[in-house]
Amino acid sequence: LNTPLFDLATNRKPQKFVMRTGPAITLLPGHVIAWNVHMRGHVNHTVYVLHADRASARLALWPLFRREVRVPHLQASGVSAEVTRADDVVPPPPRGSQGWTLRFDAIHSDSIQHARFGKLLI
């Protein structure tokens, strides 16, 4: 994950989506453990920022051939999230574009540090 190729693949349009990680390992094909995970995205008027101290994920490999990142299971610890409304608009890609689809089937955490949704802080 900590390679220029990963950055090229995930951060091609940083105004829409950026992902960074600290150390990361892959024990088996399709299983990733990463520390210090940061994700930021912007679509329409919504901006989200997610952080996890540690994340363990299983990735389905076959969907990669049809430009889909499918994560059947993700376990995260030390999670913080922030979702805000932005004045500027980043439109979603047009239907049928050659973009990638991100699909997270199950995300689980027992250690949410904080979550902010606009002015609401949990």
Summarize the structure.
The protein is mainly β and 122 residues long. The chain is built from one helix and eight strands, in the order αββββββββ.
Question: Would you give an account of this structure?
Answer:
The chain contains one helix and eight strands; from the N terminus they run αββββββββ. With 122 residues, it is mainly β. Strands 1, 2, 3, 4, 5, 6, 7 and 8 form an eight-stranded mixed beta sheet that branches. The longest helix is centred in the first third of the chain and has 7 residues, at 4-10. The chain is globular. The model has no long low-confidence stretch (mean pLDDT 90).
Low-pLDDT stretches: none
Q: What structural category arises from helix and sheet content?
A: mainly beta
Report the average pLDDT across residues: 90
Gross morphology: globular
What count of domains describes the coordinates? 1
- Oligomer category: single chain
Radius of gyration using CA atoms only? 15 Å
Our measurement of the CA-to-CA distance between the termini, rounded to an integer number of angstroms, reads 31 Å
Q: What's the story with the biggest beta sheet?
A: 8 strands, mixed
Please estimate the helix content.
Answer: under 10%
Number of strands: 8
Strand share of the residues? Answer: over 45%
